[in-house]
Amino acid sequence: MHPSRHRGIYAMTVIICNNTPDRIRGHLKRWFIEPKPNVFVGSVNMRTREKTIQYIRRNSPGLGMLIIAPERSSQGFKIRTFGKTCRKECQYSGLYLIAEEWSDSRDDDL
Predict the structure, then answer these.
(1) Which of 11, 38, 72, 106 could form a disulfide with 4 if both were Cys (CB 3.0 to 4.6 A apart)?
(2) Cα–chain center distance at 94
(3) Nearest CA to 41 among 6, 17, 7?
(4) DSSP 69-86
């Protein structure tokens, strides 16, 4: 079923963190399972997802996170990052992509 039909219904969210502090890990495990260290998967509604992300950002501001959540798009999801991550999301022609290596053009000009 397309994510647009999940409006108001629980949909899968994936959160990948860098070196998750224990208190954040415990908070995430309320709604998510951790199938691999620092990878959290759960079916939550949008409100719970956004409140969880706000909690993490407020209590661990430098924590690097990559979040994959449902969205009305041709791919059926969106990608967001916070903090320092080893990969960066980008959009090309409306499609979400992951850049494994990233350099800002300003850095290249120096």
Answers:
(1) 72
(2) 18
(3) 17
(4) EE-SSSSSEEEEEES--S
The answer to whether the CB of 55 falls within 8 A of the CB of 27 is: yes
pTM for this model (two decimals) = 0.79
The number of beta carbons lying within 10 Å of the beta carbon of residue 99 is 10
> Where are the strands (E) in 10-64, listed by range?
11-17, 33-36, 39-44
Give the Cα-Cα-Cα angle 30, 80, 33 (nearest 5 degrees).
25
Alpha-carbon gap, residue 27 to 74, rounded angstroms: 32
Encode pLDDT of 42-87 as tens digits: 999 999 999 999 999 999 988 999 999 999 888 999 999 999 888 8
Residue of 43, 42, 39 lying closest to 20 (CA atoms): 39
By C-alpha distance, which of 82, 31, 81, 85 is closest to 59? 82
Buried b or exposed e, range 50-72, using 16+ CB within 10 angstroms: eebbeebeeebeebbbbbbbbbe
